[in-house]
Amino acid sequence: MLTHIPVERHEVVRARFNSSAQVLFDRLSLLYGQQANFEDWVIQLMTRVANVHAQRSDELLSLDAQREANPNWFTQQTMLGYCAYVDRFAGTLQGVNQKIDHLAELGVTYLHLLPFLRARAGDNDGGFAVASYNEIEPRLGNMDDLRDLTQHLRDRGISLCSDFVLNHVADDHPWALAAKSGSSKELDYFYSYADRTQPDIYERDLGQIFPQAAPGNFSFDATLHRWVWTTFYPYQWDLNYTNPAVFEEMALALLELSNNGVEVFRLDSTAFLWKRAGTNCMNQPEAHWILQALRSIVAIAAPGVLLKAEAIVPTAQLPAYFGTQNPATPECHLAYHSSLMAASWGALAEQNAELIYNVMQATPPLPDQTSWLTYIRCHDDIGWNVIRPEANQDNQNAQERLRHIAQFFAGAANSFARGASFQASDANAVHGTNGMSSALTGFASASTPQELELAQRRLLLLYGVSFCFGGMPLIYMGDEIAQANDENYINVPEYANDSRWLQRPFLDQAAFNARHDRATQSGNLFAQLCHLLERRRSLPMLAAATPITVLRHRNSALLTFVRGESTNTSTNTSNANNALLFIGNFSDQAQTLVLNQLSLPSPINSWLDQLTQQHYTDTIVIEPWSQHWLSAA
Ligand code: OTU
Q1: 390 CB less than 6 Å from ligand 1?
Q2: Atom of ligand 1 nearest to the CA of 210
Q3: Which domain of life does the protein's organism represent (predicted)?
Q4: Which residue from 478, 456, 475, 455 is spatially nearest to 466, judged by alpha carbons?
């Protein structure tokens, strides 16, 4: 089975195989054990995995070894992510090389470039309709450019993260084309139905991702004369993971990309991988088994690689993506905390931190060797539905509450925000909100220097929560220079019905070039953001694994939590020096806090603000939308 592999590699793979094979085999048996020739198929799969491993470069092999020896490498407070579209940030993959200095000045250690594989011709959902998993989108470069870029990034301590769209392929992917031209083998890579009977049954329990632009979950394909499962746009065909060939091809494609230097995979839409009638076809146990099997394969053939779950699901469903159901079956290393993100914006609209407290209280501690991906904006909408359970608390009605929040960000009367409701012509709908951070925090509506200052505080406050909560924070391109909404998307026919393009601008060169000039708006924000980042790096208690204690304060304009010290176990107070108290004011009024009234395990009489180096004794006044990072002085 491992015949063509040089002896040393043979040994390395064998050792990893021995420790991960059982979980892999169990997962594959659960998924595919009833298939004819199951065991032959597993051998074929493992032979292919071993052959791809045999092609892995010496440099990547030593990276694997380093990370195996230090499996918490990505959970440190020195980790920082940055996310951008290749073309909008830097033109091409080669162009990204010229931006590495900028990433370094922020302290970035992880760069997520949005989809750069060859995409569907025509509309392609910003590259999320992939036509080929082993080719680069030609206008962005080629595979050599990708390898070079990952090498240059690695030399500067930055890991490249690539999207891996594993739930669906484009309708012009070779599998879809083969299916359309009559091949039953490839037809079986998809879910398709001769009539509406089955789709109608499923549809009773399914949600809608793009209710306006792409209603329903099935699309009639005129060539096939069949209804194809298309959770997202009609040209994104969901893959049929009941077919082991689909799992095999996708696992191999991922490993090939990892051999080209990709170090992190953002597993897109992971919640949707398995369908079950009578459910919303999200978060099914089989979807987790698929991810666990994938993790085992990575553990064998590319253990330096990280898997990141993009599961935009309610807080209660998130931890399962780490594999917490059973520590013996780890799943993804990283997962987006979309609830914390949405709740942070909700708190800003409500001038009240309750939603954040609710989310924090619903978030269990991280398992070892995992980390949240914390963020405030990304290329998608802020989806409000994930925080329905938290919005139902505090004696409130989630629908009303979220509607109010969505209206606020769409620019309701007296709102400082200038965003747009997503997939709803009706401003009362609660589906999602679009807009750049700067537009949502008030930069666009500010007409005086004072208002601009407040907008900046709000943006920094949300980033402050993301930096201190515990996880790897991600900066979304343009946020560091307060880049505005891109209103031009409306003039591009293929973007016009998808207002997520509002937050996908080309980098504003003028603002970017002015970022070191503190007299400019972008320069002022940039300096302050860099300051928060520099402070964060210096505070080891902000590493992902450090416990968090939520101090739910009776003045809920204030968000207060402690990192690094449990207030419940008053037995050990000696590590108070290693703790950090975060205080953020979500309201437009200054708030006074008597520090000793917080339920800390032991009174701390003298505090040092890690952001300003100011000292406080027992009372602190927190200006509107300001934050303090206090440690015992
Ligand atoms: C993901 O998104 C991507 O981030 C989107 O950009 C893609 O359009 C989509 O998949 C299809 O590939 O449901 O859990 O705006 O939050 O579509 C994954 C809605 C998803 C997104 C949603 C999301």
Answers
A1: no
A2: 19
A3: Bacteria
A4: 475
Q: How high is the pLDDT of residue 9?
A: 73
Give the residue, by CA position, lying nearest to ligand 1 atom 6: 380
Provide the pLDDT for residue 64.
96
Q: Which of 64, 137, 186, 310 is catalytic?
A: 310
For residue 380, the ligand 1 atom closest to its alpha carbon is 15
Mean pLDDT in residue range 342-362: 98
**Is the domain of 117 the same as that of 261?**
yes
What's the CA-to-centroid distance between 563 and ligand 1, angstroms? Answer: 32
Q: Is the CB of 271 under 6 A from ligand 1?
A: yes
Q: Could you tell me the residue range of the domain that residue 188 belongs to? A: 168-238
CATH of the domain at 517: 3.20.20.80
Q: What is the mean pLDDT of residues 609-630?
A: 97
Of 492, 521, 545, at which residue does a domain stop? Answer: 545
DSSP assignment letter at 101:
H
Same domain for 566 and 529: no
Q: If residue 607 lies in a helix (H) or strand (E), which one and from where to where?
A: strand 607-609
Cβ 364 vs Cβ 324: under 8 Å? yes
Q: Using the atom order of ligand 1, give the atom closest to the CA of residue 312.
A: 14
Strand-pair partners of 615: 608
By most ligand atoms within 8 Å of CB, the mutation choice from 173, 236, 268 for ligand 1 is: 268
Q: Report the candidate in 563, 424, 568, 443 with the shortest Cα–Cα distance to residue 498.
A: 424
pLDDT band at 1 (very low <50, low <70, confident <90, very high): very low
If one counts the domains in the chain, the total is 4
540 and 554 belong to one structural domain:
no
Ligand 1 atom nearest the C-alpha of 167 is 12
Distance 269 CA to ligand 1 centre (A): 6
Task: Identify the band that residue 7 occupies on the pLDDT scale cut at 50, 70 and 90.
Answer: low
**Cβ(381) to ligand 1 under 6 A?**
yes
From the list 554, 630, 625, 528, the residue with the least C-alpha distance to 584 is 625
Residue 310 annotated to the active site = yes
Nearest-CA residue for atom 23 of ligand 1:
269
* Residue 571 clears pLDDT 70, i.e. is over it: no
Task: Tell me: do 317 and 456 sit in the same domain.
Answer: no
Is 553 a domain residue?
yes
pLDDT above 70: residue 575 = no
User: Would you say the pTM of this structure is higher than 0.90?
Assistant: yes
**Size of the chain in residues:** 633
Give 542's DSSP letter: G
Mean pLDDT of the chain: 94
Residue to mutate, 231, 380, 433, ligand 1, most ligand atoms under 8 Å from C-beta: 380
The pLDDT tens digits for 403-450 are 999 999 999 999 999 999 998 766 566 899 999 999 999 999 999 999
- The pLDDT value recorded for residue 6 is 54
For atom 5 of ligand 1, which residue has the closest CA?
380
Q: Are residues 39 and 153 in the same domain?
A: yes
pLDDT tens figures, 150-164: 999 999 999 999 999
Return the sign of the alpha-carbon dihedral for residues 406, 408, 410, 416. Answer: negative
